[in-house]
Amino acid sequence: MSRPLTIAIDGPAAAGKGTLAKRIAARYGLPYLDTGLLYRAVGKLAFDAGVDLDDAARATDIAKRLEFSHLDDPALRGHEAGEHASRVAVHPGVRAALVDFQRSFAGQHAGAVLDGRDIGTVIWPQARVKIFVTASAEVRARRRTDELLAKGRAVDYDRILAEVKARDERDAGRTVAPLKAADDAHLLDTSELDIDGAFRAACEAIERSLA
Ligand code: DC
Fold first, then answer.
1. CA of 193 to the centre of ligand 1 (A)
2. I want to staple 205 with a disulfide (CB 3.0 to 4.6 A). Which of 56, 182, 186, 200 is the partner?
3. Is 13 near ligand 1, meaning CB less than 6 Å away?
4. Which pLDDT value is given to residue 1?
5. What are the residue ranges spanned by the domains of the chain?
6. Average pLDDT of 1-26?
7. What's the whole-number average pLDDT of the chain?
8. What predicted TM-score, i.e. pTM, was given to this entire model?
9. Cα(116) to centroid of ligand 1, in Å?
10. How many whole angstroms separate alpha carbon 33 and alpha carbon 37?
């Protein structure tokens, strides 16, 4: 029986992980989980309920009661939900409450693709392939700004750049499961690549790992 093909894709906000992970999942016929959605759902439920996002106990309580129907809310994809997610994601209790779901998804028979911040380091360190996707903060802010402009939102590049940097600092600076590349991850800098180029580079890294 062949070993499950579990692929961990980690990296900072707006590096293009999601698009890449979806294409990799389609290419290898694997189920895909965007783990950021779990944190986004907790952040949004807390915010909508008027809970202080720095209140670890209340945020943890919400994470424990998370239902997977909550993940269908289209508002979770928005920029604000990402900011709220990053704030609740610093609480160890929130992270602990979301571990089992992620691990049971990663442990599927045929394998799976998961993207996030700590998949290769904490959630599934035994992943057969780990890719850490980066791009400079300036490139990520430009992509995010263009995305929002395309949706008709009035946005300011400098403000988005400041938010991207603040998010990096919070995600990488927290004490539990900070954003960092696993020692055995392939580093994929997409600053100079379009999505097709990033996909090709990722597939080459996967094929090298499987060879
Ligand atoms: O990948 P994303 O932008 O949807 O993630 C939103 C926030 O959720 C991110 O800033 C930090 C948190 N997150 C996390 O801490 N761990 C994960 N595995 C995924 C997301």
1. 23
2. 186
3. yes
4. 56
5. 1-28+114-211, 32-107
6. 92
7. 94
8. 0.94
9. 6
10. 9
Q: How far is CA 35 from the centre of its chain?
A: 6
Residues 134-152 have a mean pLDDT of: 93
Distance CA 185, CA 118 (A): 12
Query: In this structure, which residue's CA is closest to atom 9 in ligand 1?
Result: 86
How many whole angstroms separate alpha carbon 174 and alpha carbon 187?
21
Atom of ligand 1 nearest to the CA of 17: 1
- State whether the beta carbon of 117 lies less than 6 angstroms from ligand 1: yes
How is residue 33 written in tokens?
A: 């989980």
pLDDT in tens, 71-104: 999 999 888 899 999 999 999 999 999 999 999 9
In the DSSP assignment, the letter for residue 75 is G
Q: How far apart are CA 33 and CA 24, in angstroms?
A: 12
Distance in angstroms (rounded) separating the CA atoms of residues 20 and 26: 10
State the architecture of 1-28+114-211 in CATH terms.
Answer: 3-Layer(aba) Sandwich (3.40)
